[in-house]
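Usage

Read records sequentially. Each one opens with the input sequence:
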Amino acid sequence: MTETFTIAWRYLTGYARATDAANREAAEWPPHPARVWLALAAAFFETGEDPQEGAALEWLTTLPDPQLWLPADAGGRRRVTTAYVPINDRVEGTALLQSVPLARSKQPRVFPTVWVGDAPCFLHWPEAPKSAIYADALARLCAKVTRLGHSASLVQMWTPTAPPHLADGFVCWLPEPDDADGRPAPSGLADGRLRRIRNGPSLDRLRDTFQAGRRPTVGLATDYVVQRAAVGMSPPEKTEAFDQDVLVLAQTDGPALPVTAALMVTQALRATLLSRCPQPPPAWLSGHDPDGKPLTNGRRHIALLPLPFVGREHADGRLLGVALAFPPDVPRRERGRALAPVLVDAEGQPAEVALKLGRLGVWTLRKRAWDDARATLRPETWTAAPRGATTWASVTPVVLDRFPKAHLVKERAAWEMEVGALIFEACRHAGLPEPVEIDFGATSWQRGTPRAVAKARPLRGQPNAPTTQARLGDGFPPYFAKGANAPKPQLHVFLRFAGPVVGPVLLGAGRFMGYGLFKPLQR
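and closes with the structure output:
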């Protein structure tokens, strides 16, 4: 039987306060595994250096990198405010009396903090040989730990028998696997979210560091990524067309655009990616074979998803970013090789991507920071991973793959039957299960989403006007397929499946350019 080991802790104030080693003005979240080990080591040195506890600490450093289990809704960052605090006392005789308030100078300091809540956090080693030997000593040591990070970051720590389940509202972070040479294997898109311990600290090294008057370090590092699969849950249905691991770009500059400008943004982004990626562009990025022919069924390509603030109270439909959904058979390294020249700068950091939108100006995007707490920019908002969702509603209109033969007004019932059949066919084409309920119309089920098409009225009394129709209210512009003389019907669609489905869900003729995008419906 495989031996495992787990350490858990709870932030007693609901807040975690620790500074990111790479940015002194940013909070460290998720908490670094080395920080937990250092907290245990601090308790060891401060409570008499029990030899059994010391041996248990050294044993922990021999284990592989642990899994991190954290509350799914934790990590909301608070605004960082600069405070001016008195400096420490100086050596007597070198300055004015420091205990006098007016004589004590102050220095600016920040205390970056994230909200965690009452739920505990876990470090879990799925393989921990000899854990039974050291379990009691580590349990005693955990009971002595009072803080994790800053002295105001008070915790209660213990050793449970197992980690939690994803179904209980947790996410699991896993260390990136190494390549054949034993080195970390990142995608190249700067999507690592946590650093792993390499050549981590030891008790002897801590003693030497303390005697030298230096702060302890955690050694070299590499990435952690979020586990996408649901452990301990019945697996939900997944769309076969796109990988749930979408890449999100957040708007950083430029005008505020409504979701009706989605097509303009995705077209500009596609043109930028194709022009700046290594030439010739791969087929999964361009959507065309090397000889210029469009990819046929079974050979899918990337889709660009506009991300508007919709589906919630006070939603205004404003675009906050764009996401890239990849075909599942494209390896992450291949994605990085093609897109890193556009999305990552020479130093390996997310780069600015400027989209020229004509008279609307320039819209600037950058890869979403992993700690960006805006729900619209979270991939899970659009994929419902890992649990899935049963009800979905379109955010951008679904463009039918062909014109219905029945007349919309004169043969309404036949027209609706035909449109329903086209939507069922689109679900099968996207690799989705057949929905048990569908509905469609011009109005969306998502709050903040405009009509599928704008209303219009005849323009009378103005014979010299360039058009005979006047637009009424908001609505999406028509989607013209390449080579088409007229736009196909576009509708908002509601879907309900028998079981949970993991997205992204994209249907219809404009799905690769952001039309036909669905979002889980919150009732």
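Summary fields computed downstream for this record:
- The first helix runs from residue 33 to 46.
- The first strand starts at residue 5 and ends at 11.
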